[in-house]
Design goal:
The protein is mainly β. 11% of the residues lie in helices and 52% in strands. The chain has 5 helices and 20 strands. It has helices spanning 2-17, 31-35, 102-109, 205-211, 216-222, and strands spanning 63-66, 71-75, 78-83, 86-91, 114-120, 123-126, 129-144, 150-171, 177-200, 226-243, 246-255, 263-267, 277-287, 292-299, 313-321, 324-331, 334-343, 346-356, 365-375, 378-380. The strands form 2 sheets. A 14-stranded antiparallel β-barrel has the order 2-5-7-8-9-10-11-13-14-15-16-17-18-19. The longest helix has 16 residues, at 2-17. The chain is globular and about 70 Å long. The protein starts with a helix and ends with a strand.
């Protein structure tokens, strides 16, 4: 009986180890980049440059202002058939005729990684200087183990400002021939709050917390909610070759050097650090005025020893036509794709992507959808 009990506990621990927390959590991501398989380190030419590589500011010319750019990310609940001649798009069978009883709901969502992300990152870029104000809320939940139900929750809300500058050497820009070397530095100051834990749904833990709490603030505190502030640093480098209408770019970035840690101001739980990540990327693009395309490849989070090497490989492609953009990507074995509408001061991106949630290659996919809208985009070319 003792051996049977120990075996049961080991199996539970193994199941918990494959939770949503195996996913590396970046501070910010570009919706366009996600639809390109997140192969964006050597691209990073939208309002999210500083979340990928401060050295990419070296390619920016003029003034760019994006005051409103909300983004929504959710669990992908659609069943898609993209084969030629038989395009189908509908609700996944697991979410059809969704039950109302708690037991039936739990049985239906068991093992499905649930995800909700809401964020915005207004930006001002002036030549090689950029500043982002950001607010980003991410919630990942997964109900695990039918025999011993456990709810795995990771919620965090990040708010702050990040700024960066790129020093450039060499001569070169779009439409010319030459090369340019850029070295970038970034600084961020931010507040992080949230909770991270596993909660036994069959035991007395949650019931005890509720009974011993006199307000929702006390409940969340006893669940492990905490908040604090921290300061982080980034560096990056790029080598860009311009060949008429073509551009070849190599980039690398080291984000959150030494891990960005937080000084706790409230709560009893631990505030997870923003882990350091080392990223490499290359991109090739051609601009034909009425049409341009970009091909990109990344090897991301290279120093994370807990993730399989193939899970760090990312490929992406982007084609931009008048008013319409098309995106495709491959991230750790999972396909991403999407469309964009770009009309003057107005831009929308929508699509689907997958991320690896386990430590092994193609072990557990997190299927997600993303929607973003940019309003009042202002771009002024330098003289």
């Amino acid at each position: 009986m003792y051996r049977l009990l120990m075996t049961y506990k080991i199996l539970i621990l193994m199941a918990l180890s494959l939770s949503v927390h195996a996913e590396f959590s970046y501070l910010g991501r570009s919706p366009e980049g996600l639809l390109m398989g997140d192969a964006y380190t050597a691209v990073a030419d939208d309002e999210n440059t500083l979340f990928y590589n401060p050295a990419a500011l070296g390619r920016h010319q003029g003034v760019t202002i994006v005051p409103l750019n909300p983004t929504i990310g959710v669990t992908d609940v659609l069943d898609k058939n993209l084969s030629l001649g038989e395009f189908e798009l509908g609700l996944d069978s697991r979410f059809k005729n969704f039950p109302k009883e708690p037991e039936a709901i739990a049985d239906r969502i068991l093992g499905i990684p649930l995800y909700l992300q809401l964020g915005a990152s207004p930006v001002i870029k002036m030549q090689h200087f950029g500043i982002n104000f950001f607010a980003n809320s991410k919630t990942s939940m997964q109900l695990e183990n039918a025999i011993h139900p456990t709810l795995d929750v990771d919620y965090r809300l990040d708010r702050g400002v990040t700024l960066g500058y790129a020093f450039t050497m060499g001569k070169g820009k779009k439409g010319t021939s030459g090369s340019q070397t850029s070295l970038g530095v970034g600084l961020k100051t931010m507040n992080r709050q949230g909770l991270d834990g596993k909660f036994d749904l069959t035991g007395t833990q949650l019931l005890t917390i509720v009974e011993n709490s006199d307000s929702y603030k006390t409940i969340r505190r006893n669940l492990g909610y905490s908040k604090g502030s921290g300061v982080g640093f980034d560096i990056g480098a790029e080598q860009t070759f311009y060949m008429g209408n073509s551009m070849l770019n190599f980039g690398t970035s080291l984000l959150d050097i030494g891990d960005t840690s937080f000084s706790k101001s409230e709560g009893i739980g631990e505030i997870p650090d923003q882990d350091m990540s080392l990223n490499f990327g290359t991109a090739y693009s051609q601009d034909f005025k009425i049409f341009d395309y970009t091909l990109a490849m990344d090897y991301s989070n290279a120093i994370d020893a807990s993730t399989a090497a193939m899970s760090k490989l990312k490929l992406g492609a982007r084609a931009r036509f008048p008013f319409v953009n098309v995106y495709w990507g491959w991230n750790a074995g999972y396909i991403s794709w999407g469309l964009g509408l770009d009309i003057f001061l107005f831009k929308i991106n929508v699509g689907f992507y997958g991320v690896e949630l386990g430590p092994a290659y193609k072990q557990k996919e997190g299927k997600r959808a993303v929607f973003s809208i940019n309003l009042l985009n202002i771009e002024l070319d330098s003289l």
